[in-house]
Amino acid sequence: xxxxxxxxxxxxxxxxxxxxxxxxxxxxxxxxxxxxxxxxxxxxxxxxxxxxxxxxxxxxxxxxxxxxxxxxxxxxxxxxxxxxxxxxxxxxxxxxxxxxxxxxxxxxxxxxxxxxxxxxxxxxxxxxxxxxxxxxxxxxxxxxxxxxxxxxxxxxxxxxxxxxxxxxxxxxxxxxxxxxxxxxxxxxxxxxxxxxxxxxxxxxxxxxxxxxxxxxxxxxxxxxxxxxxxxxxxxxxxxxxxxxxxxxxxxxxxxxxxxxxxxxxxxxxxxxxxxxxxxxxxxxxxxxxxxxxxxxxxxxxxxxxxxxxxxxxxxxxxxxxxxxxxxxxxxxxxxxxxxxxxxxxxxxxxxxxxxxxxxxxxxxxxxxxxxxxxxxxxxxxxxxxxxxxxxxxxxxxxxxxxxxxxxxxxxxxxxxxxxxxxxxxxxxxxxxx
Length: 433
Prior knowledge:
Layout: H1 2-12, E1 18-22, H2 27-38, E2 42-49, H3 55-70, E3 75-79, H4 82-89, H5 93-112, E4 116-118, H6 123-136, E5 149-150, E6 153-154, H7 162-171, H8 188-203, H9 207-236, E7 237-239, E8 244-247, H10 256-264, H11 271-280, E9 288-290, E10 294-298, E11 302-307, E12 315-317, E13 321-325, E14 328-336, E15 346-350, E16 358-362, E17 368-369, E18 378-379, H12 380-386, H13 391-394, E19 398-402, E20 405-409, E21 413-414, E22 426-432
Parallel strand pairs: 1-2, 1-4, 2-3, 4-6
Antiparallel strand pairs: 5-6, 7-8, 8-11, 9-10, 10-11, 12-16, 13-14, 14-22, 15-22, 16-19, 17-18, 19-20, 20-21
Helix pairs in contact: 2-7, 4-5, 6-8, 10-11
């Protein structure tokens, strides 16, 4: 047990590392703490009192604190009203506790110079997690179980079974605290542990060993898929600052469903949405899908993924000067008329034909203007269609108006009514950056 532990620890972290060990007082974490101490690692102990079990929670905290004090090991603890936190955040108790402890562990690690947070997860924890994920519906990664490392969190006991940990504790006459809630089936994980795993072991008494072997195969298969995904994304996905453009041509490739899911899942889209997006991609452009954080719009040749965000407020302009709206920078200068040619990003308007205040806002359906060089008015929506502006970019188009009349479709075209004439003396020069 000890040799395997040291070997695993060295695989997951360089020699000389300092560790913050998460210790609840249960058998798993006490075995981990003893192994850390016996192998002379430099570490501190971190304990979260979730205040979920009345006085028992306080006894757990005192027990771990006493263990650390006897060995002169730094001890850190915090108390949290988990029930209140879960309610305020709209989380289950289990999810709230997980969020609390990992955020707190990371703050202690950073503030006290520890290199890694160490937890006591083992093979059976990983099996239970996979079965839970399978029952709920999950991605391929979830089938590989709990990872041995993620960021600064490492799990050097993932080589061991629950039975091996119990045998080690008994052989060493270790003390630990029993959590009575672990004996009930009120929690889904306990139901898996007490009811499902024993039935599976009747089929395969060597369940844990078989599981480790199959997980290693899955990891290799996953690496192959990642290589194919990377190749597909290089060909069909363009990533900009805060936007993804996914070519529809890629949706005809073998494996497109999985590739698309893995491309948009980081933006909050799930499997069911991915299938609906694939179906809708063959239809009329303009349909969109929303995740909690992003919008996916089906355009003519692409799927456009961008943060939902909020449309910036209209900006009132009451003078010449420098203005910023939604990351766009506009300079307005008054000067004598110059024989400059208008461009999409720099225009001149006759100062006698305009008056402040102006409004800089997003365009909206029903807006119209008279494009420079034309005599009839045109809906801005039709104007943008003629220019073949992608749907995702249309949302960003703005206008500057006075008294309800559009002066400029910003970055595209000046309204003919406000252009300069041979008799123009002064102009406002508008420049977009």
